[in-house]
Amino acid sequence: MLDSLVTSKTRIKLLLKFFAHNNSGYLRSLAKEFDESTNSVRVELNRLTDAGLLQSGENGKTKLYRANESHPFYQEIRNMVSKFLGLDELLEKVVMRMGNVEKAYIVGDYAQGIDSGTIEMILVGQDLDLEYLDFLTEKTYEKLKRKVMVQVVVEDPEEVSGFLVYG
């Protein structure tokens, strides 16, 4: 869906990075992460900044980029990115059909804005339907071509800094 609307693969990677999560990044680190030239990343960063979708600020001698949360389309782009990654559908299904899910955390690469192909989740709750969870992880792989790894815990983890919290 997103790749049919946005033709630049570098721009898609940047949108995923900045709008899937509240991440920030520097030109060189983004180029290295995406395995792209700094010039191609710079061009797309400039286009997104000129459009007002990204903000940049000086951090020493380097520019730090992040999503512009005050942009009128911020939430819509965030929703599109979430749908593109399949997270909205996955979380909705998990929470609605798993039983007593108190909280759901996205951890790992996705929590850092990296589409590695593996979605790692922590579910907090009691008496969860683990058989349905197995079925759902298989179907998610078939549909989204992303592996889902889920850890179920009864008590809320004490430290969840850096996680995306849903619930």
Estimate the helix proportion, in percent: 40-55%
Main sheet properties = 4 strands, mixed
Q: Enumerate the spans where pLDDT stays under 50 for 5 or more consecutive residues.
A: 159-167
User: Strands of the largest sheet, in order across it?
Assistant: 6-5-4-7
**What is the number of beta strands?**
7
Distance between the termini: 26 Å
Give an overview of the whole structure:
The chain is α+β, with helices and mostly antiparallel strands. It has 2 domains: 2-76, Winged helix-like DNA-binding domain superfamily/Winged helix DNA-binding domain (Arc Repressor Mutant, subunit A); 86-166, Beta Polymerase, domain 2 (2-Layer Sandwich). The protein is built from 7 helices and 7 strands; from the N terminus they run ααβααββααββαββ. Strands 6-5-4-7 form a 4-stranded mixed β-sheet, covered by helices on one side. The protein has a 3-stranded antiparallel β-sheet with strand order 1-3-2. Helix 3 (27-34) crosses helix 4 (38-50). It is elongated.
Describe this protein with a few key phrases.
167 residues, alpha+beta, Arc Repressor Mutant, subunit A, Beta Polymerase, domain 2, 3-stranded antiparallel sheet, 7 helices, disordered C terminus, PaaX-like protein, WH_DNA-bd_sf, ArsR-like_HTH, WH-like_DNA-bd_sf
Question: How are the secondary structure elements laid out?
Answer:
Blueprint: H1 2-5, H2 9-19, E1 24-26, H3 27-34, H4 38-50, E2 54-59, E3 62-67, H5 74-85, H6 87-97, E4 100-107, E5 118-126, H7 130-144, E6 147-153, E7 164-166
Parallel strand pairs: 5-6
Antiparallel strand pairs: 1-3, 2-3, 4-5, 4-7
Protein name: PaaX-like protein
InterPro entries: ArsR-like_HTH, WH-like_DNA-bd_sf, WH_DNA-bd_sf
